[in-house]
Amino acid sequence: MPRPRIKDVAALAGVGTTTVSVVLNNVDGVRVTAETRQRILDAAQELGYSSDPIARSLRTRRTRTIGFVSDVIATTPFAGRMIQGAQEVAWRAGYLLVLVNTGGDREVQEKTVRELLKRQVDGVLFAVMYHQEIEVPSALATVKTVLLDARPTDGALPHVVPDEHEGALTAVGELIGAGHRRIGFATESLPVPAASGRLGGYTRALEAAGIPFEPGLVAAEHGDTPGGYRAARRLLELPEPPTAIFCYNDRMAMGCYRAAAELGFAIPADLSVVGYDDQDLIAPALFPALTTVALPHYEMGAWAARRLLDLIEDEPREEAPGHLMPCPLIRRDSVGPPPR
Amino acid sequence: MPRPRIKDVAALAGVGTTTVSVVLNNVDGVRVTAETRQRILDAAQELGYSSDPIARSLRTRRTRTIGFVSDVIATTPFAGRMIQGAQEVAWRAGYLLVLVNTGGDREVQEKTVRELLKRQVDGVLFAVMYHQEIEVPSALATVKTVLLDARPTDGALPHVVPDEHEGALTAVGELIGAGHRRIGFATESLPVPAASGRLGGYTRALEAAGIPFEPGLVAAEHGDTPGGYRAARRLLELPEPPTAIFCYNDRMAMGCYRAAAELGFAIPADLSVVGYDDQDLIAPALFPALTTVALPHYEMGAWAARRLLDLIEDEPREEAPGHLMPCPLIRRDSVGPPPR
DNA sequence: CCACCATGAAGAAACGATTCAGTGAATCGA
DNA sequence: TCGATTCACTGAATCGTTTCTTCATGGTGG
Prior knowledge:
Chains A, B: Residues 4-60 form the HTH lacI-type domain. Two copies of one chain form a homodimer. By secondary structure, the first copy, chain A, is of the alpha/beta class. Chain A has three domains: 6-51, Orthogonal Bundle (434 Repressor (Amino-terminal Domain)), CATH 1.10.260; 65-161 and 298-324, 3-Layer(aba) Sandwich (Rossmann fold); 164-295, Response regulator (Rossmann fold, 3-Layer(aba) Sandwich), CATH 3.40.50.2300. Chain A has eleven helices and twelve strands. Chain A has a six-stranded parallel β-sheet, sandwiched between helices. In chain A, helix 8 links the parallel strand 6 and strand 7 (218-221).
């Protein structure tokens, strides 16, 4: 038995296809008697009818599909959460998420977006895998777009990024709250928004607590495990080492743990550590488990999808284009009061 | 200027739409003079014409779209690589990948697949996030399907899983090659295919080297960092501890590192360690960097997509439904000769 | 010289919805 | 009572392709 068509429903209900369409789509401004409406509903139910999305798309020029374009999906475990957040919101609204990754190449990006446009996606989520400022592909000009984990260099596309400043502020606040006054910052040396944002939060937290900022307590290295190791060593070998280190990310914190172990600092007895990212492969697995700030990728993905759907369905919702997503502190066991 | 239609091309070339369609789709069995063909090609080029995928789909009942259904996309960084592999192959063949995740709920899975079928996907990639044996949703019966990282309990659907046995064999072979004779195995206690496969490889490797299997050298715990810690402790506190430990995965290896450090075993001087998975957040970040066996997620995703496309496009390719993907050894710094 | 056949191309019918432009019948105001 | 609305609904056009069927043309064998 092939799937029923709208005409089958119409025939069974004894009406024209127009009326079936009108009833099933709840077209407003068109009246149908309650009795007819019910007959159609019953017929559709009985046949298990639902309209063919392709035929519908051909007519309406809308596909209930959104494109998720990302630069590199691979190397970061974050990607999955962002995609999942977007996908779940889309699915619940009856939209499908089509996934494409471009490898970050500009040329490929343009081509990709054009291809998606040919496929008539209703909107595009343009994601990068860590917080950056980007030039958006020009092909995106003609389609509803929301940027994920990125802010546009020009124009004012809706976008969502993590609130690095606020996250760093609470991280350092946590250390200050535990009694620390000498707090190091092992940061990323690349000039990325996350680094400057977190540095801003760090200095702001110190300032709020009346602690003078000491440039010597900021150690910039590559934002990976060896970088964290080197940064932490530099800080801990200072004549007067910090009693706590705020690390740019969990990987640097992992390196920091090693430096601390080598130099005989026990965590958290001699040294408190806070990370950033809440990588679930690292933060809970370190010993002691790492207190860190979570990067809300799932929430950002969900927020972006919701925003895009609102755009597509012409919800008004006038507000600032950019949204800062709060980064919650995840308390574990790497923070304690300063020694002595 | 709206996008050109096929009739615009036909008009410009001075032919009927039929001929345009025939030429542009390279329909065989239909002859068109070289001159006419060229005129059409030129016209299409000039207008920048490409056919509307939706209208085409309505007619042909094919969408050049494949569904990627997964249980949990979130928690594992593996997911991304598998998806990426599949996506890139699909994209290169002109197919789009639509992503849905079901959270593993059977009910939701069935519904999801039915929804995808309504959307006329040409095929489905059904993926789980770690090697398992699964009962496939019945709705998949009517669509071309390839299983990813899973083997079906019944039926003989095409599927691809990592070659756990072979991977463990080479891992343990590496240790034996370095001179070790007393090799512990810190394994996962859950009865998953990966655990039994890797145990099989472990025993096979010993056997091949003429080393008697000692049940006491196999320590089963949860397959996470604390589990690895406990397993390694048990092994290292044996009256005659092993000189090398093969760990079920990188997380267990991470726990193993801690146990070794606590008990005064230096890696690799006193103890060699090999992991499994090659998680890029862990393996290269440990100190010393972990020698491990890579789980070829990208390759599995790509293989599955390729296989599915062949199925869709009716390539014959008769072969065994299941494919074992080799797991290459990644040499780093955690293996050395046994002490003394 | 005619019937026949291959050739090259075109007209029109799908595909399955949505929606425009009507169409009888009922209702209404005057 | 009559023209004008309103009501409830419908036939047919439309979206942009692919593909089935038809058709004119000209060459060929008998």
